[in-house]
User: Which sequence fits this backbone?
């Protein structure tokens, strides 16, 4: 039997502000008292796994141990069919660390440009299909764990469009839509995204009576 969350404190084990916003919104209806890894001053663990599941578990375990509270982590990424599934688990790494106005950050435009450059090398007829994956892992300080996986399929579209969302949202057009994720309101993205897909599974198991 998978252990279930009570409605007490839950650490959101991410250092990505965009994800934190989405996870908080997705959890809002369930009365969970969320606290972020950043607020608790938890270190960012090195993501040494080679799969989304390994990295999500590694981040959740590190936060649960450090905080003595259950922790929810998200490992996600964009996989491009014509690139053999890259960048995949390495999606964040493709955006090298940069300094913006004195703050450390990542250069998402450079990373999206890298994908576009590789697609262009394959010619104008290249297959632009791609998908976002999201693995959510919950770890409890006592060692219990639960994992939920989600996915959304779409097209890698160029040039980038829109200002909402985060990361690769300006280049991802979900199947059945013409707008990029960055042009779709958060409530709508929360109904169709890879994170929403994984959340549906989490909610079904964790918050059913
Ligand atoms: O590990 P944490 O601290 O959670 O934050 P991170 O940004 O490093 O996150 P990941 O290691 O899971 O890397 C996944 C990257 O994939 C991208 N990504 C994931 N979900 C996305 C979404 O909904 N929209 C756009 N980009 C997304 C985004 O650029 C992330 O940085
Ligand atoms: Mg990361």
Assistant:
């Amino acid at each position: 039997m998978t252990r279930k969350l009570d409605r007490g404190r839950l650490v959101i084990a991410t250092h990505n502000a965009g994800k934190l916003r989405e996870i908080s919104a997705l959890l809002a209806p369930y009365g969970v008292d969320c606290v972020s890894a950043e607020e608790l001053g938890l270190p960012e663990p090195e993501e040494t796994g080679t799969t989304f599941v390994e990295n999500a578990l590694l981040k959740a375990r590190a936060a649960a141990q450090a905080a003595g509270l259950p922790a929810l982590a998200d490992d996600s990424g964009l996989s491009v069919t014509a690139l053999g599934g890259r960048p995949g688990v390495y999606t964040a790494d493709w955006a090298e660390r940069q300094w913006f106005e004195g703050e450390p950050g990542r250069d998402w435009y450079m990373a999206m440009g890298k994908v576009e450059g590789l697609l262009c090398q394959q010619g104008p007829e290249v297959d632009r299909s791609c998908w976002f994956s999201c693995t959510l892992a919950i770890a409890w300080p006592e060692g219990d764990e639960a994992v939920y996986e989600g996915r959304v399929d779409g097209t890698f579209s160029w040039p980038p469009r829109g200002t909402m969302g985060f990361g690769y949202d300006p280049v991802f057009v979900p199947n059945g839509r013409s707008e990029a994720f960055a042009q779709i309101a958060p409530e709508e993205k929360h109904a169709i995204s890879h994170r929403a897909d994984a959340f549906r599974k989490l909610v079904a198991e964790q918050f059913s009576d």
